[in-house]
């Protein structure tokens, strides 16, 4: 079945970086865009950015421009999200999701990765 | 940026009830609206896309309607598995915002 499996929980200090992986299975990886979203405790989900898994083009929310990098390894059917210069307000569950090419519809989600930023 | 506002924020209902959740966009998003269901500790699950198209496998008691700025999600007869938080999301224009959520709980 179609599945997105994310890497495990992370604890980081302020100023550090975090890199989360998202491995896809059950479908052709480059036929769908991969999105990254996050959800702080008790808050609504927030779209962060996407990667076109066919041509590698990325688009980022202005909020994260300059400290967010989304990459892919097509051979491994895996996408990555790296967020730099972490602050406590970055504490959240980070999700990858799949959607039709170059749209922000999310039809399959990963299980989520908790990132806790604390000194 | 387009803002999404849901109402109500909390809704108490009983099994078998018909419930409606509304979502309003700050400007027209045509039909580019999705509804998601989220349970505690789980990822959101897509229920409806393009405002009114039911995702494969979603029970027919769920339905969506609307276009432009005003949208609704209706559950025709609540089942125990439906008590959860529901979010709308616009996917016409950056920043692809979500509504603040509607927590549907048992009366």
Layout of helices and strands, plus pairs?
The complex is a heterodimer of chains A (119) and B (107).
Chain A: E1 3-6, E2 10-12, E3 18-25, E4 33-39, E5 46-51, E6 58-60, E7 68-73, E8 78-83, E9 92-99, E10 108-109, E11 113-117
Chain B: E1 4-7, E2 10-13, E3 19-25, E4 33-38, E5 45-49, E6 53-54, E7 62-67, E8 70-75, E9 85-90, E10 102-106
Parallel strand pairs in B: 2-10
Antiparallel strand pairs in B: 1-3, 3-8, 4-5, 4-9, 5-6, 7-8, 9-10
What does this structure look like?
The complex is a heterodimer of chains A (119) and B (107). With 119 residues, chain A is an all-beta fold. In chain A, 0% of the residues lie in helices and 49% in strands. Chain A contains no helices and eleven strands. Chain A has strands at 3-6, 10-12, 18-25, 33-39, 46-51, 58-60, 68-73, 78-83, 92-99, 108-109, 113-117. In chain A, strands 2, 4, 5, 6, 9, 10 and 11 form a seven-stranded mixed sheet that branches. In chain A, strands 1-3-8-7 form a four-stranded antiparallel sheet, with no helix packed on it. The mean pLDDT of chain A is 96. Chain B has 107 residues and is mostly beta strands. Chain B has strands at residues 4-7, 10-13, 19-25, 33-38, 45-49, 53-54, 62-67, 70-75, 85-90, 102-106. In chain B, strands 2-10-9-4-5-6 form a six-stranded mixed sheet, with no helix packed on it. A four-stranded antiparallel sheet of chain B has the order 1-3-8-7, with no helix packed on it. In chain B, β7 (62-67) and β8 (70-75) form a beta hairpin. Chains A and B meet through β10 of A and β5 of B.
């Amino acid at each position: 079945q179609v599945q997105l499996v994310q890497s495990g929980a992370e604890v980081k200090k302020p100023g550090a970086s975090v890199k989360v992986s998202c491995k896809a299975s059950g479908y052709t990886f480059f036929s769908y865009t991969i999105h990254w979203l996050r959800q702080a405790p008790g808050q609504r989900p927030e779209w962060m950015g996407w990667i076109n898994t066919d041509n590698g083009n990325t688009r980022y929310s202005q909020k994260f421009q300059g400290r967010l990098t989304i990459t892919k390894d097509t051979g491994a059917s895996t996408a990555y999200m790296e967020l730099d210069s972490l602050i406590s307000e970055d504490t959240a569950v980070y999700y990858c999701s799949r959607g039709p090419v170059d749209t922000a519809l999310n039809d399959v989600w990963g299980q989520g990765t908790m990132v806790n930023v604390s000194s | 940026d387009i803002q999404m506002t849901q109402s109500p924020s909390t809704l108490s209902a009983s099994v078998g009830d018909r419930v409606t959740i509304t979502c309003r966009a700050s400007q027209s998003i045509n039909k580019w609206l999705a509804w998601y269901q989220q349970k505690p500790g789980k990822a959101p699950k897509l229920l409806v896309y393009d405002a009114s198209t039911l995702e494969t496998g979603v029970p027919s008691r769920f339905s969506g309607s609307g276009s432009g700025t005003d949208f609704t999600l209706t559950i025709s007869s609540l089942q125990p598995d439906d008590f959860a938080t529901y979010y709308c999301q616009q996917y016409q224009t950056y920043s692809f915002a979500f509504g603040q959520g509607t927590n549907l709980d048992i009366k």
